């Protein structure tokens, strides 16, 4: 929103003085990522609530199991034989950020 407010003066307007498009994706487009994550949870891709292992003192939180290699889309990559792992799924956030600040991507306003 701040970027839109600062660039609004330089954007072309129609005959009514309204701006015709957004530069880059608007913030609500991030709801697509939320919907994708919700779909992953709903379909059991990230974890299966029916098969949560039990510990002696009760259930283990499924959130501890949610984002381990085999439970994440595209898996995980071990970096240089260290304990550091990279989940390619996070590239969705990088792509989303790049699209938000893009000057060439023009999304029509309705």
From TrEMBL:
Keywords: Membrane, Transferase, Transmembrane, Transmembrane helix. GO terms for molecular function: transferase activity. The keyword Membrane applies. The chain crosses the membrane at residues 21-42, 84-102. The keyword Transmembrane helix applies. This is CDP-diacylglycerol-serine O-phosphatidyltransferase. It comes from Smittium mucronatum.
């Amino acid at each position: 929103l701040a970027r839109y407010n600062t660039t609004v003066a330089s954007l072309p307007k129609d005959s009514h003085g309204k701006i015709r498009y957004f530069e880059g994706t608007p913030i609500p487009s991030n709801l697509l990522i939320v919907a994708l994550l919700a779909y992953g949870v709903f379909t059991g891709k990230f974890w299966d609530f029916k098969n949560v292992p039990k510990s002696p003192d009760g259930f283990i939180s499924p959130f501890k199991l949610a984002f381990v290699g085999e439970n994440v889309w595209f898996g995980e990559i071990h970096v240089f034989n260290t304990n550091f792992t990279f989940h390619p799924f996070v590239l969705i956030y990088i792509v989303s950020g790049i699209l938000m600040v893009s000057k060439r991507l023009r999304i029509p306003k309705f």
